[in-house]
Amino acid sequence: MSIRIHPKGRRPEEGEVESPARAWTVWKKSSMAFVGTDGFSVYDGDGKLAFRVENYARMSKYRLGEILLMDAVGRPVICLRPKILSMHDQWNGYVGDGGNRRACSNSLLFTMKRPSVLCGSGKAVVFLRGSDERSMPWGRVLGPDFIIEGSFRTRCCEIHGVGGEALAWTSPKKVGSSMTLGDDVFALIVVPGVSHELIVAFIVVMDRMYSKTFAT
Q1: Mean pLDDT per 10-residue section of the chain, whose length is 216 residues
Q2: DSSP 3-state assignment of 202?
Q3: For the domain bounded by 22-209, which CATH number is listed?
Q4: Would you kindly state where each structural domain of the chain is located, as residue ranges?
């Protein structure tokens, strides 16, 4: 599966009717129901499984290692690896299974981290491959390609592009007009032209950055 990177979204051509934002349902549960682990199951608007994460162990990133985001049939989409001893809780995303560690730089998609170790419960910045090395002619470094703000722990956050526009957002999943399904099930809305794979990968990393304390 190819990864489409469109941090600004895609503008419709003249005369073209722009499609509506796409709604997904994220269930923080392994589709394989492995005992003793968490996971992610992401369903499209028709209720079909689209992405999943299995063997999502309840442990710190120092023992967790990498996390593999897969499509519905188990093909690797993005490999997520924490940077050990990072002051900003940095994670790197790689194409597919990440390949061999010596060749990782060739498959790097993005770097995601907290802008500060003191930030609250839902802020992160994302630099697409090479963007953190770009600079203006007078030496000013360009900002991140994505900014994530809000409160991820309450499932209320937005993902903004470089121009400040909202590209995706999460909210508690409701049944009817008032009943919510709890923190383990929430809605994800993605605007047209934005890579679903990238957005889902960001959500998985946000859960690791701002996960609640697990009961033992």
Answers
A1: 46 47 86 65 92 72 76 93 82 82 70 77 83 52 86 91 93 73 86 94 91 48
A2: helix
A3: 2.40.160.200
A4: 22-209
